[in-house]
Amino acid sequence: MTQDYRISRRAVLAGMSAGAVFSTLPLGSARAAGSLTVGFIYVGPKDDYGYNQAHAAGAAAVKAMEVKVVEEERVPETIDVEKTMESMINLDGATLLFPTSFGYFDPHILKEAKKYPNVTFLHCGGLWHEGLPDNVHSYFGYIDEAEYLSGIVAAHVTKTKKFGFVAAKPIPQVLRNINAFTLGARSIDPTITVQVIFTGDWSMPVKEAEATNSLADQGVDVVTCHVDSPKVVIETAEKRGLFTCGYHASQAALAPKGYLTGAEWNWEALYPSLIDDFKAGKKIPGLVRGGLKAGIVKTSAYSALVPDAAKAKADAIKAKFMGDGFAIFAGPIKDNKGATVIDAGVVRGQTDIELEKMGYLVEGVIGSTS
Amino acid sequence: MDAEPPPRTALAAFIDPLAAPLAAGMATIALFGLFVAAAGKNPLEVYRLMAVGAFGSWFSWQNTLLRASPLLLTALCTALPAQMGLVIIGGEGAFVLGGLAAMAAGLPLADHGAPAIVVQVVMAIAGMAAGGALIALAGALRHWRGVNETISSLLLSSIAIAVMNQVVEGPMRDPASLNKPSTRPLPDADLIGNLPGMDVHWGLALGLIACVLAWLLMRRTTFGFAARIVGGNARAARMAGLPVGRMTVIVTALAGAAAGLAGMIEVGAVQGSANANIAAGYGLSGILVAFLARQHPLAVVPVAILLGGIGASGGLLQRRLDLPDAAVLVLQGILFVALLAGEGLPPLKEWKARISR
Question: What pLDDT is attached to residue A23?
């Protein structure tokens, strides 16, 4: 009778002894004396054609340097990211970390920065302020410059004068992009309107597809977006025969018939330069910021659909961004309820901190922030 | 005319319930090994790394235990009602609502300078009450309106998450949380600390205590006995005069309270404020844990640690072997399916009976 149990018992014992063996095994350490190990942490998949892919492209550029890169994707903004950071520090010997999601910062990065004062944390998002630990820095780009150029390009090809914008949440970063895109388009043709649809979260593929389809049904002929992965929006728009402008990374490959241009991060330029500074022992500022001129953002190459007039106009403004500067938010600017939000004569340059508290949609945007 | 069945030995009593999970575990190891082999990785190296990442050092153990602690409580949200034959899958909603209610109750107290322990106790009570109310509603709908509790708890959970999002983006939003709508943060002094000598917060201890209490309640009290009678046959239980409705509400409320407490710990020990991050799927993983533990409150403990370990080692697989994160999901999926398939197999003693026939 007891024979029936023998296998199980043996298995239990075998399992226990295997566990004991495992727990005494040394770590296959990735530590190599003297060389720098850099950790990259992403909130979503590395191949999302969007936010995370843009960062992964930056990491790939770092891999070409003489440093060891460790990466982890789909790490939630919970205790998970704290443990991932600690695991990279303790098990991989990382001394420089790029936790790339906005929500990693407070409280997770701040906690770890206090715990590991010898590790440097570079965070994407720009929440840094005086008084934070010295080993925390933040970087971000003025991607609204590229959005403004997308708006200019799109304004040259539209027939219906109606644009659509699929956005995640009505927060300042997103509103600034919507507004810059709209202002760019209306600088060419003030009759253009931009219908915005908020999906409520960063990754809502079903809602994003529904939103894009409903925009197409309303007669919109240019669609862009600000969600984590623009893939669904761009592919859906392509199927509906709409023009598209990309975001985060290039989606040109997804929409050969409709892709015009797009606003892209240029982390593959920024990251190697940050790491060079780090290795050279240069002090990294708390707040690394910049737009087209600093090479932190870029535009997708114009597709064959973009007419020469559009290229000329967009390139002229781009030259200003690259040169002395160009203020997108120069008064008078009204919101879409008719109230003046930037008075005539007031010019809010890119570094103006007021722009980072943006809570309105400009005239010409159809939609509401609440 | 039949002889008395031979008395079950202590060993048999111990191993019988373990046989199916062990077989499922081994099948999982084999299948996942094939999967990673197909992806061009050495399965032995994968398992070695997983063991190292989950249990290979004190750091790994703490990582594992920390990830396991919310699962201990959210698993009870499914395991407790299961004793009464109810399948509740709304733990995520109770977790999120618990976290939100805890902040709503804790912030004003913290503002008035109440001692940390008072703030924390009130937060725990508020979290448990909110989570308990949500799941009790599913129980009540089931008993008095005949609404399927599985569906209603799932839908109530969606509503709870939407309510949380609405509240943190509206009435409770901290105006300083520009790009990440959140409630105001708790003062550092009111945050729940770590267990002595460990880098693991008190949630682990509370989770373990809750699992033991749940086991005592269900296996060592007349209430638990009655609950399991209802689980066996609700109609017979009613005929026998058991207050099925009241018991349903109590058990589902306790279940929701467990998940609500986990939500309170998440905001009180980890996040420091309530925002969309608290809907991170702990409630959903709890369902998995409860089923893997075959709804046994004590078995929840090792299973939660196992899943915590899988989570803790997942990062190492990505970093060392370049496996995608989805590999860990595949592993969990195989484990779950293997276990459910194993449920359908007859217990060992029936095999013996068949063989001797």
Answer: 42
Backbone region of residue A140 per phi and psi (left: phi > 0; alpha: psi in -120 to 50; beta: other values): beta
Sequence-separated (6 or more) residues with CB below 8 Å from residue B5: B349
CB-CB: which of A19, A22, A172 is closest to B179?
A172
**Residues of A with CB below 8 A from B270's CB?**
78-79, 82, 107
Residue A136 and residue A285: Cα distance in Å, rounded? Answer: 9
DSSP A254: G
Q: Within a domain: residue B275?
A: yes
Q: pLDDT band for A190, please (50, 70, 90 cuts).
A: very high
Say how far apart CA B226 and CA B243 lie, in whole Å: 9
Cα separation, B175 vs A357, whole angstroms: 10
Q: Residue A79 is nearest to which of B9, B67, B181, comparing CB atoms?
A: B67
Q: Which domains does chain A have, with CATH numbers?
A: 37-141 (3.40.50.2300), 144-264+299-366 (3.40.50.2300)
Chain B residues close to A143, C-beta within 8 Å: none
CA A273 – CA A295 distance, rounded (Å): 11
Grade residue B5 by pLDDT with cuts at 50, 70 and 90: low
Q: How far apart are the first and last CA of chain B?
A: 15
Q: Would residue B357 count as lying in a domain?
A: no
Residue A229 contacts by C-beta under 8 Å, 6 or more apart in sequence?
A44, A48, A49, A50, A51, A52, A203, A205, A248
> Does A73 contact B22 at a Cβ distance shorter than 8 Å?
no
**Among positive and negative, which fits the CA dihedral B315, A134, A60, A42?**
positive
Q: Is A20 on the interface with B (CB under 8 A)?
A: no
From chain A, pick out residues whose CB is under 8 angstroms from the CB of B57.
Answer: 27
Distance from CA of A12 to the nearest CA of B (A): 8
* A86 at interface of B, judged by CB pairs closer than 8 A: yes
Measured in degrees and rounded to the nearest 5, phi and psi for residue A98 equal -115, 80
Two structure tokens written together for B340: 């459910």
Contact present, A102 and A124 (Cβ < 8 Å) = yes
**Cα(A89)–Cα(B22) distance, rounded to whole angstroms?**
35
Interchain pair A72, B325: CB under 8 A: yes
CA distance linking residue A18 with residue A208, whole number of Å: 48
B231-268: b or e for each residue (b if 16 or more CB lie within 10 Å)?
beebeebeeeebebeebbbbbbbbbbbbbbbbbbbbbb
Residue B330 to residue A337: CA distance in whole angstroms: 50
**Per the domain annotation, does B253 fall within a domain?**
yes
CB B244 within 8 A of CB B261: no
A121-140 pLDDT per residue, tens: 999 986 778 888 899 999 99
B278-335: pLDDT as tens digits = 999 999 999 989 988 889 999 999 999 999 999 899 888 889 888 888 888 899 889 8
Domain count, chain B: 1
Whole-prediction pTM value? 0.84
A102 in reach of chain B (CB within 8 A): yes
- How far off is chain A from B351, nearest CA to CA, in Å? 9
In A184-223, the residues whose Cβ lies within 8 Å of chain B are 200-201
- The CA distances from residue A145 to A142, A270, A317, A326, in Å, are 6, 17, 9, 9
Residue B206 lies in a domain: yes
Name which of B46, B201, B275, B316 to mutate to probe chain A: the one with the most chain A Cβ atoms within 10 A of its Cβ: B316
Q: Which domain holds residue B114?
A: 69-190+199-299
